[in-house]
């Protein structure tokens, strides 16, 4: 057997011969790469690996820092383990729960039990930060270990009751976990080799608990700027309370409920809670003290369920005696070849000027002037605007529902007074975590929705949808997210069971992504998330469900 192998380094675009069994860290040191920020992990044949990973066969290797999406995720996972270990060392009978992202950080609680949270005081936060800094200064090695699942269940079960549910429901013969001295923990992806790789973080009080602050992806030498997201926080809190009605706080408990034939109960209750929330928003519009608004503006990021929300809200407004008319701004997209380009020359589908603003504003003015307009229809498969004979005119008491990415942007209809509008922000905010320390990013859930929808209705492969991800996220950060807190109300379209249903649709689409392309990194990550869920049938999902917008079978016309 040869003692050397040849690898291809994507950072240098060169082939390098190295001894068999070289670690990624050793290879990085040998290459002496000049990266703008410290290395965190590497992509090996497009899968993200820890720097302790040993190379035995020819590979394509790309080293990552915190400016990459995969690198940032690795950094945050490692920081999470440091924080969880610090909590355990300071308060042995408590456990950290990383609830959800908020205000460009992560909202965390310290639990004495499932029902009881530890009181968070300035002294508690200061102690926690000091212990985290100590763990980082000690540069503790983080070791990857793998054992039979029954042994892993025993190890985690000894640590704290209730931490083994996910392992018990996965059905894998072996499980991989991480060790830092005597402390063990489980994470869904690669971590950095030791705690000394953490160079920047902060913890502070937030809504009576803790906000874990992380480095900015654009410049990892500074923290993300904290932003106000009080309304978004309220939505998360509301949905966590809803999940308590089902006695489900993590995916392991969800899977157990599915195996106990309770999936239909979850579907019915989740859908009923959605319907109740939509009805409450309709009541709020109908009984507003300043009078019924003329325009209801519905915005949100891609695949958040805006279209289905507008249709369900229409029904509830009619129950209140209001005559609504929905105008989808998607139908005012410019032809694809006229779409604005971003700084990389790629189509920027989230840009405000993807909307034909002159046409949109003229038709809106004509409608308000009592005229009849010919409505456009945008064909996503051809990328062209069409006219199919649809017309629209408004009665004096009609409420106009404007639904689209940019509905809350003040530049969309600058001449309409604020008091004539009611603003709604729709998003899909994941409310069930894999376990106490592993969350499912909201952006990944929406991406899975979009992959299924684009494949089914717009003729895009998963690779094509993933390839546009960075552009989509930049557009959302610039054109959509900044206006969410200006909404009068927020609505969360996430469903507790949706990944268990989307799994059957998404997995074969994601499996088509070639294993040797940049998009495979994301496809592999999404497939891993889906693998944690028990698959459930969709026959009990009502035809008006938000999920039907993506998997088909809706009674609404899109």
Give me the secondary-structure topology.
Layout: E1 4-9, E2 14-19, E3 22-23, H1 24-31, E4 41-44, E5 47-49, E6 54-55, E7 60-64, H2 69-90, E8 95-102, E9 105-111, H3 122-137, E10 143-148, H4 149-159, H5 165-170, E11 174-180, E12 183-185, E13 202-206, E14 209-213, H6 230-245, H7 251-259, H8 263-286, E15 295-299, H9 306-319, E16 323-328, H10 357-368, E17 373-379, E18 384-392, E19 398-403, E20 421-427, H11 442-458, H12 462-467, H13 469-479, E21 489-492, H14 498-510, H15 519-531, H16 548-551
Helix pairs in contact: 2-3, 8-9, 11-14, 14-15
Gist of the model:
This protein is an alpha/beta fold and 558 residues long. The chain contains 16 helices and 21 strands.
Please give a handful of descriptors for the protein shown.
single chain; 558 residues; Ubiquitin-like (UB roll); Threonyl-tRNA Synthetase, Chain A, domain 2; 3 domains; 5-stranded mixed sheet; 5-stranded parallel sheet; 16 helices
Describe the structure.
The protein is of the alpha/beta class and 558 residues long. It has three domains: 4-65, Ubiquitin-like (UB roll) (Roll), CATH 3.10.20; 70-213, Threonyl-tRNA Synthetase, Chain A, domain 2; 230-551, P-loop containing nucleotide triphosphate hydrolases (Rossmann fold), CATH 3.40.50. The chain is built from 16 helices and 21 strands. It has helices at 24-31, 69-90, 122-137, 149-159, 165-170, 230-245, 251-259, 263-286, 306-319, 357-368, 442-458, 462-467, 469-479, 498-510, 519-531, 548-551; strands at residues 4-9, 14-19, 22-23, 41-44, 47-49, 54-55, 60-64, 95-102, 105-111, 143-148, 174-180, 183-185, 202-206, 209-213, 295-299, 323-328, 373-379, 384-392, 398-403, 421-427, 489-492. The strands form six sheets. It has a five-stranded mixed beta sheet, with helices on both faces. Strands 16-19-15-20-21 form a five-stranded parallel beta sheet. A four-stranded antiparallel beta sheet has the order 8-9-14-13, with helices on both faces. Helix 2 packs across helix 3 and helix 14 packs antiparallel against helix 15 (519-531). The longest helix is centred in the middle third of the chain and has 24 residues, at 263-286. The mean pLDDT is 92.
């Amino acid at each position: 057997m040869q003692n050397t192998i040849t690898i291809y380094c994507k950072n240098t675009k060169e082939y390098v011969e190295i001894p068999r069994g070289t670690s990624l860290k050793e290879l990085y040191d040998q290459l002496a790469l000049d990266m703008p920020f410290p290395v965190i992990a590497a992509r090996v044949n497009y899968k993200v690996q820890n720097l302790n990973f040993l190379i035995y066969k020819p590979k394509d290797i790309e080293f990552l820092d915190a400016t990459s999406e995969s690198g940032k995720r690795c950094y945050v996972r490692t920081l999470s383990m440091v924080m969880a270990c610090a909590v355990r060392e300071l308060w042995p009978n408590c456990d950290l729960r990383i609830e959800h992202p908020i205000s460009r950080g992560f909202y965390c609680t310290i639990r004495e039990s499932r029902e009881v949270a530890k009181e968070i005081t300035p002294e508690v936060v200061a102690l926690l930060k000091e212990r985290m800094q100590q763990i980082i200064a000690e540069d503790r090695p983080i070791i990857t270990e793998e054992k039979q699942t029954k042994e892993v269940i025993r190890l985690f079960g000894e640590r704290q009751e209730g931490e083994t549910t996910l392992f018990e429901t996965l059905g894998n013969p072996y499980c991989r976990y991480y060790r830092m001295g005597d402390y063990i923990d489980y994470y869904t992806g690669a971590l950095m080799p030791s705690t000394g790789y953490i160079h920047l973080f902060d913890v502070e009080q937030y809504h009576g608990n803790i906000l874990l602050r992380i480095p900015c992806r654009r410049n990892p030498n500074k923290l993300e700027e904290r932003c106000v997201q009080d309304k978004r926080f309220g939505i998360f809190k509301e949905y966590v309370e809803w999940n308590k009605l089902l006695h489900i706080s993590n995916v392991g408990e969800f899977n157990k409920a599915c195996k106990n034939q309770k999936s239909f109960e979850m579907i019915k209750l989740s859908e009923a809670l959605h319907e109740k929330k939509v009805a409450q928003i309709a009541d709020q519009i109908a009984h507003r003290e300043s009078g019924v608004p003329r325009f209801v503006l519905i915005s949100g990021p891609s695949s958040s369920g805006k279209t289905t929300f507008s249709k369900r809200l229409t029904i509830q407004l009619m129950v209140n005696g209001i005559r609504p008319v929905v105008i989808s701004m998607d139908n005012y997209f410019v032809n694809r070849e006229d779409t604005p380009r971003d700084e990389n020359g790629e189509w920027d589908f989230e840009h405000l000027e993807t909307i034909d603003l002159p046409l949109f504003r003229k038709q809106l003015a004509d409608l308000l002037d009592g005229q009849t307009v010919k409505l456009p229809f945008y064909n996503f498969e051809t990328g062209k605007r069409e006219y199919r004979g649809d017309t629209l005119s408004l009665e004096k008491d009609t409420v106009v529902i404007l639904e689209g990415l940019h509905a809350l942007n003040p530049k969309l209809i600058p001449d309409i007074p604020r008091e004539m509008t009611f603003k709604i922000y729709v998003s899909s905010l994941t409310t069930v975590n894999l376990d106490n320390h592993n969350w499912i990013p909201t952006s990944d859930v929406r991406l899975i929705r979009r992959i299924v929808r684009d494949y089914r209705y717009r003729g895009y492969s998963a690779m094509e949808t993933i390839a546009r991800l960075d552009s989509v996220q930049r557009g959302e950060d610039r054109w959509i997210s900044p206006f969410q807190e200006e909404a009068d109300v927020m609505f969360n379209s996430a469903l507790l069971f949706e990944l268990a249903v989307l799994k059957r649709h998404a997995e074969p689409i994601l499996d088509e992504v070639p294993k040797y392309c940049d998009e495979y990194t994301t496809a592999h990550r999404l497939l891993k998330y889906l693998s944690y869920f028990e698959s459930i049938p969709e026959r009990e999902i009502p035809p008006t469900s938000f999920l039907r917008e993506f998997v088909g079978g809706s009674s609404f016309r899109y």
